[in-house]
TrEMBL record:
It catalyses: tRNA(Ala) + L-alanine + ATP = L-alanyl-tRNA(Ala) + AMP + diphosphate. GO terms for molecular function: alanine-tRNA ligase activity; aminoacyl-tRNA deacylase activity; ATP binding; tRNA binding; zinc ion binding. Keywords: Aminoacyl-tRNA synthetase, ATP-binding, Ligase, Metal-binding, Nucleotide-binding, Protein biosynthesis, RNA-binding, tRNA-binding, Zinc. Coiled coil: none annotated. It comes from Henosepilachna vigintioctopunctata. Residues 16-774 form the Alanyl-transfer RNA synthetases family profile domain. Belongs to the class-II aminoacyl-tRNA synthetase family. Alax-L subfamily. The lineage of its organism: Eukaryota, Metazoa, Ecdysozoa, Arthropoda, Hexapoda. This is Alanine--tRNA ligase. Its EC number is 6.1.1.7. InterPro entries: aa-tRNA-synth_II/BPL/LPL, Ala-tRNA-lgiase_IIc, Ala-tRNA-ligase_IIc_anticod-bd, Ala-tRNA-synth_IIc_core, Ala-tRNA-synth_IIc_N, Ala-tRNA_ligase, Ala_tRNA_ligase_euk/bac, Thr/Ala-tRNA-synth_IIc_edit.
Amino acid sequence: MAFNVGNVSKHINPDRTARIIRQKFMDYFVKDCGHQYVRSSPIVPFCDPTVAFVNAGMNQFKNIFTGNRNPKYRKVANSQKCVRVGGKHNDLNIVGTDGYHHTFFEMLGNWSFGDYFKVEACEMAWKMLVDVYKLPCSRLYVTYFKGDDKLGLEEDIETKEIWRSLGVTMDRIIPFGIRDNFWEMGDIGPCGPCTEIHYDHTGCLNRAQLVNKGLFDLTELWNIVFIQYYRNIDGTISLLPSKHVDTGMGFERLTAVLQNKISNYDTDNFSYLIKAIETNCANIKKYEGKYGEQDWNNLDTSFRTLADHSRMVTACLADGVIPEQNQKLRRILRKCFSLSENVFQKERGLLKELSNYVVDNLGHVYVEMEKNISQIHQIIDYEEEVYRDLKNNARSEWEKLLKDNKQLKSLDILDAPSLIPAYKDLQKIKPSKICGELAFKLYDTFGLDSYTIEKLAIALDIPFDTKGLDSELKKAKHKIKQQVIIKSSVLEELEKECIPKTDDSFKYNFEKVVDDYKFENIAVKVLKIVHHDELVKQIGPNTFCGLLLDKTNFYCESGGQISDKGKIEFDKAIFEVIEVENLNNYVLHKGFLTSKSGYNLCLNSTGMLSIDQENRLDIMRNHSAIHLLNSALKVLKGATCQKSSKVTGNFFNLDVSIFGPKLNNDDIQQLEKRINDIICEKIPVTTKEIDIQTFLELDDVITVPGEIYPEEKIRLIEIKHGKNLISREPCCGTHVSNTGDIGNFSIIKMKSLGRSTVSLHGVTGKKSELAVKNGYEITDEIKRFQKSIAENIDKPDVLDMAVATLRSKITSDIGDSYLIPVNVKQKCLEELNAISKQIKNIAKVTLNDFVDMEMQNVLDSKVQVSKSNKKYIIHYLRISMILENVPLQRATKVCKHIPVMVISYTDNTVQARCCVPKEFCNDNFSADKWMENTVASVFRSPLMVVKGQNEKLICNMKSKRINIQDWDLLLKKSMDTAKDFIENNL
């Protein structure tokens, strides 16, 4: 009887819920078949730089198949979180248009690493489906590999016979070629034949001839791969020493089968989200499950897309994927915001609300979702604000471009903000087509993906060479590979001569006796000498060179930590090591040879290598401190992400993104208090080496997004107070063994690096103690200065100089010797700003008095007399230095009966005013002539006639900005010319 969607009950059998289906799979393989359960790896792989997301269940076991890692367990099973949004498996652009494509999905799998093989794998799979899940055999088909003449591989008769022995009839066992039934990891690497189990949703009579024809109701359910070969670089196939089994069954597809649904979106993996959208968007028509032309307004497609993307976003954010660093995730987030606003009429908060439903549904399986729910919410809120700002800023410019080309409406500027500069660039060159080279520029320079470039080409009505872009991308990848492969001539020679790699295992060795750290000196031998990138046999004194030793206890720059310094003591000379460099595990010690006797250092010389112990200890303090800071930031601010770090002996620097309110002075104080409390508690800092599988099993590990970690010997640094975990990070750097040895902790600089990122610089130990001491001293100094303001208000130059000196002292940089904690610095700057305001306020209150006093003083003692025995005044108003607004009118009123010229200078701006009583005016002398021919001429500024006044009696000069370094000279010149003019013309 044919399967009829309409006859299926809307109520799911309690035994067939998604949760139970998943649990039955795990119980069967773990309890009944002796497999070890392994938790899902994070969505972004830690050890594989070749993929942006984990896109298959086997990703975390990849290096076991290649032979680069020994398996911790021989038989494992798990449910792996997977994302497919790019590359070979790009489902992003068709999600929602059908019932089975997803950006996020779960892959159920069981693996054998050299344990069982074909017989057991097929038996367990068949029993799982038929005996545990109770699927009817009449709806199942199996495929197997029919062989390949070119590869010299025969038909996989063994698998065929296994299926026969399990009761599968021959008319349901179908052979396929290399495209369908031969799995390969890549162009080179492990591979092998596979066998697939397909399920027929219709229940019709035998449909074997339709298997692998792409029918939506006859789908692949389970793929079982027998990894037994290796694809060589020449394309040939050879046998592997061990045989492995890799299986994968799409959980969403399995659930649809067991719940009698054609569409995955009709299962309880998605139905709860569709109902949640309906609940939160009451004004929207309910979901009807329509596809294609029936879904004429794309409403149901939007339901499915938002439901799918909500799962993907929640899973990614829970695993610490940062949208800032992953444009595909950011694009999906913005798609969700756009759907929420434009389709579901929810301006804010819908995606955040849906993430709660996802966590409720999947949190019991992937516990990181429940643990990181606040982080998920925080980043969604942050990205929604970024989206809104972008929309407000970019939309108006995009609207202008739309007026010129209506076809651009098919593009979403919020999906790809760089469309605006990309479109403008294309408008300049006006291409007849988008060739591969131009497409690569759009990809590389403007960050447009192939899908967006194609839509842009359609809008411009020009062809787009997609194959050309693929070719350019391959070329770019090849160039990167070539750059990695290129070796220096020195390295080539070292490898050609088979010189052993440097043994640097001693770099972590030290002994702590009471409170002292002891770093053991080691005897070393000079294997090679490098000078100007050439190998030489000997080197003389005072010549910069590099020494390759047989072993070293020096740390090479890595993970943000700079290299050690130190020396090598030879019989008659000392080699000062200023830095070390790792050249493909050959460690070069770079520096200068010093010798009083003119001694030349030769190959095979032996000496004693010692590190600069104080410098190393300072580095260790700072590195442990940066771990505490990273951890404390997460506690204080929630969703944070380390961008980069630098650790030296003098300071540490952490650049970190904070997805929420920016750090303020109170936050800095809290961070310093928390970290200094941890230092005072003297908590052990432990280091241990673990493999990647153990690493994946740990919770609360702080990692750097995008960082690639080794499969083996991952150094894990933990700071743990009893059961209370303070910090846990993988790190190759050097650390103190107890937080108490850090001594003290201070943040001395905070700088914004954009919307979300802040750069923090800090110091520890004695430098921190000094910074704190300086902070107390400068605070007291400002308090003392504040008390002296009132009695020195008549000395503006002195007060201004004092404020400037204190400000300069406070704003010292990281490299300066005078360090102050940043929170003290901020408070002091605020106090100085208040003092400056106070000085100006006092000046305003007493302004008239001071102007009157200064001008009266001039009248009393500084009136000048011309050759014709007439009195006049030319005066620079000194009180103007501390004033915001200079009352020149009041200054000249004090001197009503004689000619007066007054000049002021405030905030780098000069002003001037002159008044001439009527009885002093003549054909050669008046206010406007006096100003125009003297002061205004010197400062090259026009006259400004006072409205309603006679310009011959009163004249102002328009204010003019003058650099402080030019002021004294110009002032003297202006006053001299004013004096000469009045002497000759009055």
